[in-house]
Amino acid sequence: MFKKYGVLTAACIFGIGTFSVYLFGEWHEIQDEGLRWFLELPHMTLSFFLIIMLPLAVHQMAILIERKNETRMLWTRFMVVVVLPYIVVATYLAAEWDEIEEEWLPWLIKPSHFLIVLINGIMIPGILWLIINKFIQLWDERERFLKRIVELENELRSFVHPEVYKRIYEKTSLEATGAFKIIMADMQGFTKFCEAHSAAEVANLANEFCNLMDERIRQVGGITLSYAGDLVFALFDEHIASDDIVGVAKKMQETFRAFAQAKFPDWDTNLNIGIHYSRDIVLGTIGGGSAQKHFTANGFGICEVSRMCSEADHGQILVSEAFAETVTSDPIRSRLIGIAWSKQPKNITVPPVMFEYRLVEMK
């Protein structure tokens, strides 16, 4: 809207400015005749075309350019640049024909007459042609710029989690404070794998691992916050059923084992998992200003689940007591076996009570 009405405003200023120049040249006659001067046919015609028709035609031109109507745009361009100015000149010459027949040269060199012929016959078509060409050029550049913005947006979306992108797009808050359920999973034997394989092979492994884990996490509405080579960190809203989250952890393990066995049959690996429930998590962005922003979660609960993930070994799924209390499925609860920490977790004074989720129900 701004662009179209901006062009309309510019055309109005141009038309009124041109008519003002003409009024200046005719000022002595205007002073003598007053209103009668304006009621004369050539003067009325000139004012009508310059002040009304020209701005409307240019405005219509802008609309057609925006709508990309090439055929109508071509005809409107012809009307604006050629027909309208020469209608003004022809009408004026017809009205003044008696004087022109008697003394055409003195009539022509009179400032007001010379200006109207020069401005409408040469200057206005030339200036309008340049303005319209520039407008079309700028519009094409705008279209290319917008197309590139869409391309960049699609490229950048692959770097941002869909849920995060959705919140940004809908202009809803990225910040959230409250209770969340957390899964942290770690590939066992990753360092040895890196030592024995090329960087390209490690990158391919990490890429496939991320894709497989994220697919499982998103099935129940989880958000994958980060990957760090062999580690995946995911967050779940507290309203997501804990039974489903345990199911996600099982699928993550099963998927990874099948993938590793198929791709690297000699690699002794497993997926160690920690699951926790914390009521004091801040979800949002860190960084900003000149620094790159990162969407992540903070809170002591993140430290606890990280230590649980490190404690897990040989494909264990370790569950905190806080999370275990939210499990409602009896078959799952029957497989939660309390275990002790092998050693005091680093920098945690009171470690959370833990349970191991056994894949085989204990009798």
Would you kindly provide a written description of the structure presented here, covering whatever features stand out?
This protein is of the alpha+beta class and 363 residues long. It has 2 domains: 2-157, no CATH class; 166-357, 2-Layer Sandwich (Alpha-Beta Plaits), CATH 3.30.70. It contains 15 helices and 8 strands. Strands 1, 2, 3, 4, 5, 6, 7 and 8 form an 8-stranded mixed beta sheet that branches. Helix 4 runs antiparallel to helix 5 (70-95) and helix 5 (70-95) packs antiparallel against helix 8. It is rod-shaped. The two termini are 73 Å apart. The model has no long low-confidence stretch (mean pLDDT 76).
Order of helices and strands: HHHHHHHHHEHHEEHEEHEHHEE
Q: Structural class given helices, strands, pairing?
A: alpha+beta
CATH architecture of the largest domain: 2-Layer Sandwich
Shape: rod-shaped
Q: Give the beta-strand count.
A: 8
CATH level-3 fold name of the largest domain = Alpha-Beta Plaits
Topology:
Blueprint: H1 2-25, H2 27-33, H3 35-39, H4 41-67, H5 70-95, H6 97-102, H7 104-109, H8 111-157, H9 162-169, E1 176-187, H10 190-196, H11 199-218, E2 223-228, E3 231-237, H12 242-263, E4 271-286, E5 294-298, H13 300-311, E6 317-320, H14 321-324, H15 330-333, E7 336-339, E8 354-357
